[in-house]
Each structure stands twice: as C-alpha cells, then as structure tokens.
Amino acid sequence: MDRAAIVSRPASWKWWITGLLLLATTINYMDRVTLASASVRVTRELNLSDAQYGNLELAFGWAFAVGSLVFGFLADRFRVYWLYPAVLGAWSFMGMATGWSQGFTELIVCRALLGFFEAGHWPCALKTTFALLSEKDRTMGNSVLQSGASIGAIITPQIMKLMITDQPGSWRTTFIVVGAVGFVWVAMWFIFLRPRDLDHAPVTTAKEDALGLGVIVRSGKFWAVALLIVGAQAVWHVYRVWLMKFLQTGRGYAEKAALDFNSFYFIATDVGCIAAGVISLWLVRRWALSPHDARRRVYASACLLTSLSVFIPWLGKGWPLLAILLLIGAGALALFPCYYSFVQELSPHHVGRLTGLLSLWVWAVTSPMHSFFGLLADRSKSYDLGLVIAGLAPWIGVFAMKFLWRRDDALAAPAKTSPV
Q1: Angle of the 172-192 helix axis to the 135-163 helix axis, nearest 10
Q2: Which SS3 state, helix, strand or coil, does residue 269 take?
Q3: Helices and strands counted in the chain (H then E)
Q4: N or C: which end of the chain has fewer CB within 10 A?
Q5: Under 8 Å CB-to-CB from 359, ≥6 apart: which residues?
Q6: For residue 15, what are the CA distances in angstroms to 242, 349, 383?
Q7: How crowded is residue 315: how many other Cβ atoms within 10 Å of its Cβ?
Q8: What is the 3-state secondary structure (H, E, C) of 209-251?
Q9: In this predicted model, what pLDDT tens digit does every residue of 285-295 receive, in sequence order?
C-alpha cells in the first residue's frame, strides 16, 4: 500500500479504530465474565462443587492457551483484517451456546471452545495497535484496548440484574443476548476498515529485528516478560473468577449487592488501566523518561496497589474491605498495558507469534490455580488466603525485569514489515 494513503486518514482515525478494539475487548470480557456473574446460580442449579466450577475455568484457560498459540501464528501469517472478525464471531457463538448447556459436560465443552476462540483477540488486537500507533503512544493505546475488559465486566452484572428472575434457568438468556452482541461488532469492523488500512506498521524508533523466533525466545528479555505476565495474570483472573463467590459466600453479601459491587470493582480496574497509559505518557513527555522506563515505573506502582490484599483476612463485611478490593482492582488491570507494550518491544516482526507463545505459556501455567483455589475453598471454607497470594504475585514481574531484562541484550537488525 502507498504510504500516502495511510497519511490521508484524519489524525484522529487511529484512535477511533483503537476505540473499536476497546469494544472488541468489552465483548470478549462480557462473554467471559457472564459465568462468573452467574456463578452461584449456575453451580446451584447444575449441582456443581467449587472444585467443578474451578475446572470450568481450568478448561477455559487451557483452551485459551492452545488458541493463543494457534492464532498467534495465524496473525503473523494471514491478514488480521479477515482473521479478527472470524475469531470474534466464533467466540460469540460459543458464548450463546453456553446458555443452552444442560449439564456439566456441555458447559465445560462450551467453556473450552469459548476460551480457544477468545484467545484470537489478543494477537489480532496487538498487531492492529502496532500497525496504527508509534512507540510512545502504544502504552496509551494498549490501555484503551485493555480497558474494554473492565467495561465488559461492569456492564455484564447489570445486564444480569435486569434479565435474571427467581425462575430457574433465567440466567441462560443473558448468555444468549451477550453472545449476540459480537455479531454487531463484526459488521462495524467491515464498515470502518479496509484491508489496506493495516498493511504497514508506522515508523518506529524501536530497533527492528530480523532474528529468528527461537533466538528471541531464548533471550533474557523474553523470559522477563514471561515471568511478568504470570504475576499479572494471577491477580487479575483470580479476582475476576472468584470475587462474586468471595462476596456472597465468604462475606455474606446478597446477590444483588454483590453484582452492584462487581460493577464498581471493574470501574476501578478501568480507572487503573487508563491511568497506566496516561501516567506512562506523562512520564515520557514531562520527565523525558524512555517509554520502557516509564512502563517499568507504572508496573511497580501497580504492584503496590495489588499488595493491599494482605489486609483481606482481617477485614469483615463493610466499606474498608470494599475499598481495599477497589484499589487492588485498579492495580490489577494497570499491569496489562505495560505488559503488552513490553511484548511489542521484543520484536516488531513477530508480534503475533510472541503474543501467542506468551499467552500459551501463561494460561498453561496459571489455569490450574482455579482448581487449586476451588479445592482450598472447599476444604478451608474460606477464599482469603488465595486472594492474598494472588495480590502479591505481580512482584514476580518486578524482579524478573530487574534481573533478566538487559539493556545490552540486543535483538536488533532491520526487518521488513508484513501485512497485518
């Protein structure tokens, strides 16, 4: 594509498309958190234990890991313009199918296929932000992209409140309605973009590499990022999956009160996510830090917030507990824009593959934690210890970046960009 064709776009166009990516993340999380929002009803009506509920998330996570690898490689090989709407439509259908499940077996199959197709969102989205945004703008762009996770998690409990009744099975309609929203996004994607819009990445100040994927994977930088995402994933997904059960079963909140707080929790995560991008951009422009150094400082600050989990065992039902949970949520999602930008620093030539490999790694490693969490909850009748450990987990990334990310660990040589 002629570079002039890209330049002819209005300056705001790239941010409008980033907003479309935000909407995709919103839909991704609406389909994902519908089960968590209805967890008490679903487990009660289908007679599931906490361990079985944990296994549903284990199936989702391992399928997500496989899907991450598959779609990560596909995103670098084929046009994201076609791949992205295909995977979004597929996971939307599986979200709808979950509402038709009649037992544990059907539910776990739907959950696994949902995870497999949802994994395609991240390599496609990061390929798109890489193509649209310069290096200094990417943390902000990735913050906008990731903030859709909060929006989806905010909206879903409120939809649940409107649609569920005292009748058994009323939760099923929510899965069907939420899943159908994805097909609206597919239409919007084809309306607002053309294949040529994503043909070339913009000029970047980062060193471009032509090294093989194997060389990058063996580098200290790759493993710094790999360990970093383990900690970030642990705190985000433990609280996402178990917060409703913790509030209702662990602290005695009524279902509607827990649903309302769940929305407030994810508002806090959205604030933290956007703040991560804004602060990173401010540190670059006001204090002349490099984008990389700004991201590291934002990440460490977010770890301080998630570490407030240590107070949970001493807090009963009441506003101090809820305030701590809001701060933990803000820190948890603030970690992810930094992570995505670190991935994009590794190699402009292998963004999709690296995203897929790292997602495969982290979902394979962390998904069993839900089964262990469920077993621990069944035996101890408490969710507190698991929440404390999850809140401290992100510090793994701080130490990994300090000791494994070497500034002189060059992975650099000019590389051609490929169509996305």
Answers
A1: 150
A2: helix
A3: 18, 0
A4: N
A5: 64, 65, 68, 69, 72, 119, 122, 123
A6: 34, 23, 40
A7: 16
A8: CCCCHHHHHCCHHHHHHHHHHHHHHHHHHHHHHHHHHHHHHHC
A9: 999 999 999 99
CB-based burial, 56-86: b 16+ in 10 Å, e otherwise: bbbbbbbbbbbbbbbbbbbbbeebbbebbbe
Closest-CA residue to 266 (of 148, 95, 395): 148
Burial class (CB in 10 A: 0-12, 13-18, 19+), 420: buried
For the segment 118-132, what is each residue's pLDDT rounded down to a tens digit? 999 999 998 888 888
Q: How far apart are CA 122 and CA 24, in angstroms?
A: 10
The closest of 205, 202, 223, 284 to 409, measured between CA atoms, is: 223
CA atoms 333, 337, 338, 343: torsion sign:
positive
- Show the DSSP H helices in 11-134 as ranges: 13-37, 39-45, 50-77, 80-98, 104-118, 121-132
pTM: 0.78
How far lies 169's CA from each of 173, 198, 260, in Å?
8, 43, 21
Contact 336, 359 (CB under 8 A): no
Tokens of 232: 């970030």
Please list the ranges in the chain whose pLDDT falls under 50.
1-7, 202-209, 412-420
Q: Which two tokens stand for residue 420?
A: 């996305």
